[in-house]
Each structure stands twice: as C-alpha cells, then as structure tokens.
Amino acid sequence: MRWRSLRHVGHLLSGVLLGVMVGGTALATDPRDYVTSHPALDYFPAPSRDGRYLAFVSERSGNPDIWLRSLASGVVSLPRQVTTHPAVDRDPALNANGTQLLYVSHKSDPRGDVYLMDLITGQEQRLTDARTGEALPQWGPAGQSVYYLKQEIGQLQYDLYRLSLPDRQERKLLDQVSAYSVGPDGLIVLVREGLLYRVRDVQDERPVLLTSPPSVDSWPMVVDRTSVVFTRYLRDTNADGHVD
C-alpha cells in the first residue's frame, strides 16, 4: 500500500485560497489562479468530491461564516454566503455533489454543534446537542452517515463518532483523535499524538501506525484507497538549528 506526504497541498497567502491539483484531478480553475480574492481572511477550503463546488470559511462579513463558490468550468459566479449568524461558523464539509453542507456552529453552544444544511432549500437541522462540543464533521462514503470529533464535558481530548442519518443512532468509534479523514471506500486515516494511523473496519481492526517520530503529522486527507496527503511538521530534536 502506497502512502505519501505532500508538504504543501495548497497555499494560503494573505487569506486567499488558490486552486490546486488534488489526487491527480484538476480543479476547474488554473492552479495559479485565485479561487477567492477578497481582502478578508478566507480559509478551510472544502471541495465537493465531484469538484464542482467549494465551501470555505470567510471573515468578509465581519465574523467567520461559511461561503460557497462554484468551480465548474465556464461558470463565472461570485461566492455566496450560506451562514449569517453572528456566532462563529466553521469546519465546512460538502457532500459528494455539493448539495448538502455539514458545518459546526457556535450559535447555540459555545463549544460548537454539528449542523446539516440543504443548500437548495436553505433548510438546516442540528445534529448534535449542547451536552458536548463537536468539531470537523465529514460525510460517510455513501452519504448516509456523518463522522465528527466529540469532546465530553471535563475532557481535554476528542473522540471520533459516527452518526447514522436515517435513524440518528450515534456510535463512538475511536478515542484520542485530533484529526482524521474518511475516504470514499470507508478507509479512515486519523491522528493521535502527532502520528498517523489507518483503519478500515473500526469494529474488527486496531489502527495501524503509518508514521513515526520525530516528525509531527496532522490534517490528513484520503485521496483514494492507496494514497493520503497530510501536513508534516519537522522538529529540531537535538537543538543544532537544523530540522532532523
């Protein structure tokens, strides 16, 4: 199985998102073109799997909100704001065809709850409650489940949970997870204490270690069943002024 690291998957320069190549598939914009160009901060890009839409967080309205932009070839359109509450909205995740949006909002819970919005009708529903704090929601492979990190009251760490959308049944999958990515075939790559692990069946398998110290790895994104891209932070472990 082939696993690779790309130090720079995209560039965030002065709060501007740039189009990039991801997993060998080109976004509709040229990799050198701006995807956004507002002077306010734009960050946390989240494309739909079909490559037609991009959700992102922008502070152009005065506080962090979720915005949406078309990436379709030949389409010229301005980004549109999809959340408007004065509280912080963050961590967007589009479904495969860009018609539904998961995100975390602090409008009803200072620690953040997961919301699901229909981008066609504008209707939304709250998926988690104020008893816990949630972060980084992602779609399951078939679009019938939602993954997210949950922090219990009095707990410093986050744990990974999965919620079935049809019956609203929630299940804890893995503990002590700081970041993760769910691939199209259900493969999960997760981060624990700065190291990457992979697991395909959380019921029958233990996570398999992928990386090792002294590097610190985070923000994985599963490209396909054999590849993952992630951010690597290298450390000077012997204080000689050079990265080991």
Strand content: 35-45%
Characterize the largest beta sheet: strand count, sense, and whether it forms a barrel. 4 strands, antiparallel
**Radius of gyration (Å):** 18 Å
* Number of separate helices: 0
Helix content range of the residues, please? under 10%
Low-confidence stretches: 1-15, 19-29
What is the 3D shape? globular
Going across the biggest sheet, name each strand in turn: 5-6-7-8
Mean pLDDT, nearest integer? 84
CA-CA gap between termini: 26 Å
- Counted beta strands: 22
User: Order of helices and strands, N to C?
Assistant: EEEEEEEEEEEEEEEEEEEEEE
* Structural class determined from secondary elements: mainly beta
Explain what the structure shows.
- By secondary structure, the protein is mostly beta strands.
- It has strands at 12-13, 16-17, 21-22, 25-26, 42-47, 53-58, 65-70, 80-81, 89-94, 100-105, 113-118, 124-126, 133-139, 145-151, 159-164, 170-174, 179-182, 188-192, 195-199, 208-209, 216-224, 227-233.
- The strands form seven sheets. The chain has a four-stranded antiparallel beta sheet with strand order 5-6-7-8, with no helix packed on it. It has a four-stranded antiparallel beta sheet with strand order 9-10-11-12, with no helix packed on it.
- Strand 17 and strand 18 (188-192) form a beta hairpin.
- The protein is globular, with a radius of gyration of 18 Å.
- The two termini are 26 Å apart.
